Prior knowledge:
Elements: H1 2-10, H2 16-25, H3 31-63, H4 70-108
Helix pairs in contact: 1-2, 2-3, 3-4
Amino acid sequence: MGHAIDLLRNAPNPAKPKQLESLRAVSCKSADVVRVRDHCVQAYAVHLDALEQIAAGRSSLAADVGGSDSVAANAALAHLAKARQNLDSARKLMRDCANAEADLRRRYGL
Length: 110
């Protein structure tokens, strides 16, 4: 599982969805390992959602080529606000993921 987390952590953003699915698919026998895997999956899912919100914000702005569509601008702002919220949450969750993974490595002598 540690290898799958490392691959996900180090992957460029466009490759993260595939790596996230690989982490989800990792079979774990121990309940504490399952908890860490699931926590890390949640952390990176939130991170990926933030990236999707950023892309949606960009799309909203791109649709407003003339710059006069306040609906598009408001949609972009809403996407970017959600992205910021998710990035803040993901930062904490990913830090917790790394700490939990380190604890497992120490516990199992890996």
